[in-house]
Amino acid sequence: MFYQAQTIRTLSLFIFFGLFTGLGGCSIWSSGDFKDPEVRLVKVDVVKAKLLEQHFTLRFRIDNPNNFSLPIRGMDYVVNLNHVKLAEGESNVSFTVPAHGHHNFSIPVRTNLWRHLRQIVKALDKPDEPIPYRLQGAVKTGWLFGRSVHMSRNGEIIPGNYVPE
């Protein structure tokens, strides 16, 4: 009986200290010191383009402005290219961005742009003119008690920089 009480007391003590030390890491997320990471669409690579199905690789860069490393555990995204929805989905990419550092990552996507083919070909006819894009979504940070950082970014991609001659 004494052995069981001692074991329960020791186990309770370990659980208490485990929870207590785990909560220390959560204070980073709730403090005013947390700055949202910046996510940018860097490049869109065409992997395969058939009439009814296209495969792309979306290349992103995430910058961490914080004094601590930032674990990333996924991203929800919607990418519009020239006001046409290019891709939408959820990625389970996992990595850690170092403090005041950046990380590049890629997400493969598959889509069907058949209805918008004329508009996209028209935009690609002028390889030196920029094509606007819009990136919206949320980056999932943290491992256990993370937060979702919402993002919305507009930019431009110049097709001549990516389409081989």
Any overview of this molecule?
The chain has 165 residues and is of the alpha+beta class. The chain has two domains: 1-31; 34-161, Sandwich (Immunoglobulin-like). The chain has helices spanning 2-30, 117-124; strands at residues 38-49, 54-63, 70-81, 84-91, 95-97, 102-111, 131-141, 147-157. The protein starts with a helix and ends in an 8-residue tail after the last strand. The chain is built from two helices and eight strands, in the order αββββββαββ. Mean pLDDT is 79; it is low at 23-30. The longest helix is centred in the first third of the chain and has 29 residues, at 2-30. Strands 3, 4, 5, 7 and 8 form a five-stranded antiparallel sheet that branches. The chain has a three-stranded antiparallel sheet with strand order 1-2-6, with no helix packed on it. The protein is elongated and about 75 Å long. β1 and β2 (54-63) form a beta hairpin.
Layout of strands and helices, then pairs:
Elements: H1 2-30, E1 38-49, E2 54-63, E3 70-81, E4 84-91, E5 95-97, E6 102-111, H2 117-124, E7 131-141, E8 147-157
Antiparallel strand pairs: 1-2, 2-6, 3-4, 3-5, 3-7, 7-8
CATH topology of the largest domain, which one? Immunoglobulin-like
Number of strands: 8
Order of helices and strands: HEEEEEEHEE
Strand composition percent = over 45%
C-alpha Rg (nearest Å):
22 Å
Task: Compute the number of helices.
Answer: 2
Please describe the biggest sheet, giving its number of strands, its sense, and whether it closes into a barrel.
Answer: 5 strands, antiparallel
CATH domain class name of the largest domain: Mainly Beta
What is the subunit organization of this protein?
A: single chain
Distance between the termini: 82 Å
Overall SS class: alpha+beta
Poorly predicted tracts of residues: 23-30
The CATH architecture of the largest domain would be Sandwich
Helix content: 10-25%
